[in-house]
């Protein structure tokens, strides 16, 4: 303020109306730094007398105001502190107004900071000389100031932190860059703060006490200190210089909070990778037992080490499959899991394939056709699922050398052992039992689908939806049914149909339509009751000839409609066929067959969405989902030994997996099946199939994805029956998540590191679904004061002991009020809803690090 502004401000004060009992205005102008001592003589305020107060004239001033001139308005100018002690004018000051004109005094006054902190404000005057910084400082709304709060607030403003919290200040500094000379926040603190004070805070909070300080060594110090609390300091002797001697818990919580931040974690991950290379972490970890670091979570190399450990175990045939599975599931709740998710998934399904092999080490036995068929339905199909899921994960990280090694293991067990034995034994059973009559006891034929499942319902006036998914083999249907049972209120049952041979679309699709007879002419065209059955329009006509109120549509058309459009399209229709072909469309082209398994994942989502549309938009309750055929697929290139020469003779159609002919011949390495039990067969056709998984040698399209043969993967056709249930209906079960409950009864914490036990209240099954929660300690304001731990509650075990979780928590090293309440907070990660807050008292006594 200049002298003119001061005169104007003082005039305003003296011109204010007198308060009740006030005879005149007395204003004490405190100019602590004597900035205006020379101007006071020239100051003029209308009708106001000016007097200067010094150490030596206090009594004289008091006498002047009370005895000599008790009526005139006075401006008393002074550079003294107007405290109560040794102040003759204390009572006068009390009922008078105090005015400040120097910058420091104005800051103290405006922020309501006690004058005793003047020296602190003076020290950082350059900071306050900027309106924007002053506004941000004021916006922090500090109620009670101290030197520490002022310092914290200044650092917070400089680092764009919204609250005076040193953890957030330090993270902001580190987030910018670890290069000291380029760090903008360090630069700002050097200009407008005291960089030494910043490093003192770092030392006091996190025990970082190096003579030569740098942000890079500080980050490593924090990370290693946090890491040491998971693996034990005794295992990190080489890194002892980076481990704090005090306040270790603060480092643990600092690192944990940074890792768990929804966006800032990306910078942390980058630094952690740098740090582990700087300290040669791999050399240390590779000499430690897996048990020592399997729970640790600070560095990405930990997951690499665990992945390598499991992979080496598989390569060297160490059959600790249960341990491997537990390790993979344990790591799911850890920070870096997403980074390695595809590798872990590939590893998991490699383990499952090895587990399957171990369970069937005696080999897949030969037997009757029905026994092999049922064994495939009940058990063997799992191997196809594991193989498929492996490649879904593999394709996400296909350049990974480790996955290439896993691929060799997987191909050896799946293609050479499983497919080799199963397909060979099945071919033998077919040859001895099914060449003249393509049927199995107790298994409905695909041709009987409409008459067995649909006809009676339509006759009774019920509305029926049939989804036909091209090439949805049995194991895919099982996965879809599991999802529908878990994620909807409906009930989905799975059974099988014995698919037609050849297992091809143009015969499988008509087999699912209403018909009296199906036949194939000498041009290999398929007719239903004399009508051409190829294509959507022809199938639609066949349906309408049986049921007038019917319709056939492509699934893409249904997905493209809005709700009103769907209701209009299907209004009055009693029989609806929806055709889906994502899998076959991808697999049947040589250029895209490699994406077959990814197409399956897409298909599962599309089919799930179709069922939801039928349920929600069309009020459908009867939904059948089936397929025209399955498929064979292997990823490795086929060898010449996987192909067989074809002696087509006078064949009417030749494909990779079948030959249609009306000549009866004995062909080596091939099955000959009379089609009279499949079609009307006016032309006495015989279908020839290469045994096992062989393909006929021929020019043209893809060879890895095939169908048309008689293998179990091609002819075990899934049939899913989905019945929608609504709330309140008989048999309806609401979908609910499991609960994660604290089992400890004590509600008092006496140690800064403590363990708590949690319990998944039910096993995951049917409509009881998994829940993932994050758990932490928080104060009454909701500020997180501990590390955060994740529990994935997806355990399917009956035994309650197998559904327990022991979790370790670490509290920040801050003062705790034993009379306050703190809360163990359990938050659902999917909804972000806090599902439970459990009150605790914290009484640590003297905070120490002895518990480390």
From TrEMBL:
Record-linked InterPro entries: PglZ (IPR014060)
Native species: Cytobacillus stercorigallinarum
Pfam families with a match to the protein in the record: PglZ
Source taxonomy: Bacteria, Bacillati, Bacillota, Bacilli, Bacillales
Protein name per UniProt: BREX-1 system phosphatase PglZ type A
């Amino acid at each position: 303020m200049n002298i003119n502004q001061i005169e104007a401000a003082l005039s305003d004060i003296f011109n204010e109306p007198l308060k009740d009992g006030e005879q005149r205005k007395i204003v004490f102008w405190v100019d602590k730094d004597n900035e205006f001592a020379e101007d006071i003589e020239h100051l003029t305020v209308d009708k106001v007398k000016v007097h200067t107060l010094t150490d030596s004239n206090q009594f004289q001033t008091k006498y002047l105001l009370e005895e000599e001139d008790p009526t005139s308005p006075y401006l008393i100018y002074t550079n003294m502190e107007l405290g109560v002690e040794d102040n003759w004018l204390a009572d006068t000051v009390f009922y008078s107004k105090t005015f400040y004109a120097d910058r420091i005094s104005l800051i103290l006054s405006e922020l309501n900071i006690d004058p005793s902190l003047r020296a602190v404000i003076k020290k950082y005057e350059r900071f306050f000389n900027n309106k924007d910084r002053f506004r941000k400082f004021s916006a922090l709304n500090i109620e009670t100031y101290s030197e520490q709060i002022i310092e914290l607030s200044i650092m917070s403003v400089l680092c764009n932190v919204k609250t005076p919290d040193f953890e957030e200040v330090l993270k902001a500094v580190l987030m910018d860059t670890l290069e000291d000379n380029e760090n903008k926040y360090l630069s700002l603190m050097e200009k407008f703060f005291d960089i030494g004070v910043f490093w003192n805070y770092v030392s006091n909070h996190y025990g970082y006490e190096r003579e030569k300080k740098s942000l890079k060594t500080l980050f490593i110090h924090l990370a290693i200190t946090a890491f040491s609390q998971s693996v034990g300091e005794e295992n990190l002797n080489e890194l002892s210089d980076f481990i704090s001697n005090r306040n270790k818990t603060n480092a643990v919580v600092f690192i944990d909070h940074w890792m768990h931040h929804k966006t800032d974690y990306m910078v942390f991950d980058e630094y952690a990778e740098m740090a582990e290379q700087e300290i040669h972490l791999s050399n240390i970890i590779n000499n430690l037992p897996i048990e020592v670091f399997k729970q640790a979570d600070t560095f990405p190399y930990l997951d690499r080490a665990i992945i390598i450990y499991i992979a080496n175990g598989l390569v060297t045939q160490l059959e600790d499959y249960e341990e491997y599975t537990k390790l993979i599931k344990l790591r799911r709740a850890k920070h870096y899991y997403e980074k390695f998710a595809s590798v872990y998934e590939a590893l998991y399904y490699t383990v499952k394939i090895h587990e399957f092999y171990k369970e069937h080490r005696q080999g897949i036995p030969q037997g009757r056709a029905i026994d092999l068929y049922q064994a495939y339905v009940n058990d063997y199909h799992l191997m196809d699922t594991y193989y498929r899921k492996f490649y879904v994960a593999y394709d996400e990280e296909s350049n990974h050398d480790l996955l290439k090694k896993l691929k060799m293991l997987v191909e050896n067990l799946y293609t050479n052992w499983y497919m080799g034995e199963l397909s060979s034994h099945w071919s033998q059973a077919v040859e001895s039992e099914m060449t003249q009559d393509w049927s199995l006891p107790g298994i409905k034929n695909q041709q009987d689908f409409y008459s067995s499942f649909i006809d009676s319902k339509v006759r009774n006036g019920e509305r029926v939806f049939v989804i036909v998914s091209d090439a949805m083999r049995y194991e895919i249907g099982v996965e879809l049914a599991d999802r529908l049972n878990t994620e909807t209120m409906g009930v989905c049952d799975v059974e099988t149909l014995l698919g037609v041979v050849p297992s091809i679309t143009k015969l499988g699709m008509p087999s699912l339509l209403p018909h009296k007879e199906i036949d194939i002419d000498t041009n290999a065209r398929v007719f239903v009751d004399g009508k051409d059955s190829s294509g959507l329009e022809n199938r639609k006509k066949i349906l309408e000839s049986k049921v007038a109120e019917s319709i056939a549509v492509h699934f893409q058309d249904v997905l493209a409609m809005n709700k009103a459009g769907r209701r209009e399209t299907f209004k009055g229709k009693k029989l609806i066929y929806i055709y889906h072909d994502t899998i076959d469309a991808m697999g049947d082209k040589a250029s895209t067959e490699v994406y077959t398994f990814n197409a399956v994942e897409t298909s599962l989502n599309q089919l799930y969405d179709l069922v939801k549309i039928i349920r929600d938009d069309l009020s459908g309750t009867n939904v059948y989902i089936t397929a025209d055929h399955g498929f064979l697929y292997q990823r490795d290139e086929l060898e010449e030994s996987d192909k067989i020469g074809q002696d087509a003779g006078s064949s009417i159609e030749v494909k990779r997996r079948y030959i249609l002919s009306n000549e009866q011949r004995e062909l080596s390495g091939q099955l000959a099946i009379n089609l009279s039990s499949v079609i009307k067969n006016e032309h006495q056709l015989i279908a020839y199939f290469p045994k096992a998984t062989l393909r006929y040698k021929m020019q043209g399209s893809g060879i890895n994805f095939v169908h048309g043969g008689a293998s179990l993967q091609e002819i075990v056709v899934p049939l899913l029956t989905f019945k929608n249930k609504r709330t309140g209906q008989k048999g309806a079960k609401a979908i609910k998540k499991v609960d994660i409950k604290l089992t400890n009864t004590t509600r008092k914490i006496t140690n800064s590191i403590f363990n708590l036990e949690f319990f998944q209240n039910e096993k995951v099954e049917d409509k009881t679904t998994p829940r993932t929660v994050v758990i932490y300690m928080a104060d009454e304001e909701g500020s997180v004061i501990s590390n955060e731990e994740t529990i994935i509650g997806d355990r399917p075990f009956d035994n309650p002991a197998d559904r327990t979780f022991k979790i370790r928590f670490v509290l920040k090293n801050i003062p705790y009020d034993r009379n306050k309440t703190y809360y163990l907070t359990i938050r659902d990660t999917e909804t972000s809803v806090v599902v439970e807050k459990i009150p605790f008292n914290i009484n640590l006594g003297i905070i120490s690090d002895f518990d480390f």
